[in-house]
Amino acid sequence: MRLIAIVTDLHLGDDFPRANNVDAAKRWNIIFEDIKKRNVNQIVINGDIGDRPSNFVFFNELKYTGIPFTLTLGNHDFYDEAIKYFYRNNPNNDLELYYAEEDEETLFIYLDSLTGTISKNQYDWLATQLRSPKKIFIFIHHPILPVPTIVDTLYPLTNREEIVNLLFQHTGPITICCGHYHIEHDQTVGNVRQLVTPAASVQIQQDDKEVIIDTTKFGYRLLLLRNNVIQTDVIWFEND
Questions:
Q1: What does the pLDDT read at residue 227?
Q2: Is 141 exposed, middle or buried (0-12, 13-18, 19+ CB in 10 A)?
Q3: Which of 146, 180, 162, 178 is nearest to 75 (CA)?
């Protein structure tokens, strides 16, 4: 059994939550305290941590707990800042943070979408990883499958079509865990299931015409892997 907490879009120190009268650090602390009570095996930070000064405090908090954590980078992150606190060997570690970890049954792939695209080097590496016969989990900040929301129109992963085609060629099931859109969403297309985790800061209503900010709730996702079954639940908090 493996219990994973997925946290995304914290935006610590960023103007975005502050402009909407939200204390992003306070919301992260509420989430963090809840996670520590649940005996999770791993925390996945799925991108958009916050400004540079916030990284120092954030990563030291994580390390202090002793809970193993992994990281993907989002479009509001800084590669050179993040690798001060989190480093993994990967084929292109001077430019991007992508890597894989595995256990006896599952391959966990972590992609870097900081630039809003997947580079050719990263794409070729992903294609090699997908030759594995194990169950596949992909953690990436940007959703890969389209989602019916205005943010998907405005700020999508720019080369997602070729990534989708690559995933559809895989013979086994693939689970994508992502964020970026500040919504909760769960969909399955073919062999691919995509779980969009809501933001730890503020939400954006799932509307296809305009960006509507919802400051009333924030949350994170729990992912339980047990006996070849995936169970997931979003933990919501209202106000703070």
A1: 86
A2: buried
A3: 180
Residue 138: how many CB atoms within 10 A of its CB? Answer: 24
Tell which residue, 6, 34, 18, 71, has the closest CA to residue 230. Answer: 6
What pLDDT, in 10s, does the model give residues 197-219?
A: 999 999 999 877 899 999 999 99
Residue 94 is predicted with a pLDDT of 67
Structure tokens at 129: 């990883």
For all residues of the chain together, what is the average pLDDT?
Answer: 94
Buried b (16+ CB within 10 A) or exposed e, 103-134: eeebbbbbbbbbeebbbeebeebbeebbeeee
- How far does CA 209 lie from the centroid of its chain? 25
3-state secondary structure of 110: strand
- One-letter amino acid of 133: P
φ, ψ of residue 232 in degrees (nearest 5):
-140, 150
Segments of 86-238 assigned E as strands: 99-102, 106-110, 135-139, 174-178, 185-189, 192-196, 203-204, 213-214, 217-226, 229-238
Residue 208 pLDDT? 78
Q: How many CB atoms lie within 10 A of CB 156?
A: 19
- Note the pLDDT of residue 90: 67
Instruction: Tell me the domains of the chain and their CATH numbers.
Output: 2-238 (3.60.21.10)
Instruction: Find out whether 227 and 236 touch, Cβ atoms under 8 Å.
Output: no
Three-state secondary structure string covering 43-88 = EEECCCCECHHHHHHHHHHHHHHCCCEEECCCCCCCHHHHCCCCCC
pTM, two decimal places: 0.96
